[in-house]
User: Fold these one by one.
Assistant:
Number 1:
Amino acid sequence: MKISARNQIKGRIVEVSKGATTAHVRIDIGGAVVTASITNEAVDELGLKEGGDAYAVIKASDVMVAVD
């Protein structure tokens, strides 16, 4: 599959935590960990498991920057 998003960062899944309908998937991308909230159905369809490889695809319009 190809995707138009340019902010694709490969990493390793360090945790998959399912809730009632939504799961939190934590991906280590070289020492920094990003967390995605996706449906439990998506976790199952993608076969996401701790220790597996995955890409964090970041939509630029949803990234915020802050400074002190």
Number 2:
Amino acid sequence: MKARLFLASDSTCQTYQEKDAPQAGWGQFLPNYLKEYSVFNHAIGGRSSRTFIEEGRLKEIEKNITEGDYLLVQMGHNDATKEKPERYTEAYIDYKEYLKQYIEVARVNKAIPILITPVARLHFVSGEFLVDFGDYCNAMKEVAEEAGCPLIDLMTLSIHHLTEIGFDEAKTLYMVDVNGTDHTHFTAKGADQIAIIVAKQLQSIIIS
């Protein structure tokens, strides 16, 4: 039986239908690079660490997750939206507390939680890719350290990747290349490249 990965995240990770092409999420490409694992992608757009729990989505994962499984948690994009108070969490207060709930659910069921910092948006100013969601990245790192939980710093890794390939190529990874407005969501090409980055990190964590 294959080991199993459960994904709890937002629109940057979710699996999209063919009608949504070329928009895609990195979670839907993860199975291509982790063939020895079964991937259950529970990511859905517009959810924060708070609303994912409030809507019972973590409960759905809890019904199935078991010993030896992994729970991957990438949250932060929607937590930072102050203009949508139903989603918003304060980085160093309730965001941290919600993240701890994901860790607890995994560990109670003898699964392994892995926290993943928010992936980069295409935010390019004066020749430099900028880090968004800095407080949320830092807060997640604090939770990982406090809880002794593995962490993938996807913000740093994705910024590094964008810097390596340069703005013109980086733009093709995001939906802004298609519609001129969306600097957050990925094209299939972009989602695939992020999946490769995540898969490499996961292999390192799991093997070690």
